[in-house]
Amino acid sequence: MNVCGVRADGLSAGVVSAAAAIGDGRGGFSIERIDVDPPGPGEVRVAIAAAGVCHTDHAALRWPGPLVLGHEGAGHVEAIGDGVHGLVPGQPVLLNWAIPC
After folding, report:
1. Does residue 37 surpass a pLDDT of 50?
2. Which of 6, 44, 49, 62 could join 19 via S-S bond, C-beta 3.0 to 4.6 A?
3. For 76, how many CA atoms within 13 A lie in the half-sphere containing its CB?
4. What CATH class does 2-94 carry?
């Protein structure tokens, strides 16, 4: 499976490796492999198919880093933590923020 156009290894309920755009806090970023832990209680891990980068991400390039950029995403539920109801692995989802950026 591809995550943001890069092959993700070991997609399962365990730790996975994925590519991420990492802001360096000095105005730049790099594409790096990161480990994504299994979801904890009340958490959902989403395999991102596409993510937007907006003005908030542009501003975040100067925030103390490193941090993962791209918070407007869509994909499918990959794994769910304990206590999560109403979602199942494979279900398409999008990320929605309560406060507009």
Report:
1. yes
2. 6
3. 11
4. alpha beta
